[in-house]
Design brief:
Layout (H helix, E strand, L loop, with lengths): L15 E5 L5 E2 L14 E5 L3 E10 L13 E8 L4 E6 L8 E9 L2 E8 L2
Parallel strand pairs: 6-8
Antiparallel strand pairs: 1-2, 1-3, 4-5, 4-7, 5-6, 7-8
């Protein structure tokens, strides 16, 4: 897929997901086939960045020297408006069920999606 849309993994301020042209299911991890039906007719689309917190975990111990400056930081699972679930960083006060929207922040030298409460 050389014509992939640029997303946060390539330094762009965007979350990109795939939608199956055959069954309509969405998936976040890029694959050459639909995880639901096996078809290869996938379309990449930009996410709205809106969703609901499914789970949250406050990290209080740095995993690497590069992350030490960020402790404590929150890792959240977000059910997006488009129907896929993704892991990202988020405000430390987020709780399950909060409506959120994505922004982007630097974390350990990389640009990452960062969710805050929707306004």
């Amino acid at each position: 897929m050389s014509d992939r849309l640029a997303d946060w993994t390539k330094g762009a301020e965007a979350i990109v997901y795939q939608s199956c042209g055959a069954c309509g299911k969405t998936q976040y991890f890029h694959r050459s086939f639909c995880a639901a039906c096996g078809e290869s007719n996938l379309v990449e689309k930009p996410s709205s960045g809106k969703g609901t917190v499914y789970s949250t975990s406050l990290v209080c111990r740095a995993a690497t020297p590069e992350t030490r400056a960020h402790v404590p930081y929150n890792i959240v699972l977000v059910d997006t408006a488009e129907g896929f679930r993704m892991m990202a960083h988020g405000d430390n006060d987020l709780v399950i069920g909060d409506k959120v929207s994505a922004g982007y922040r630097a974390f350990a030298g990389r640009l990452v999606p960062y969710f805050g409460k929707a306004k």
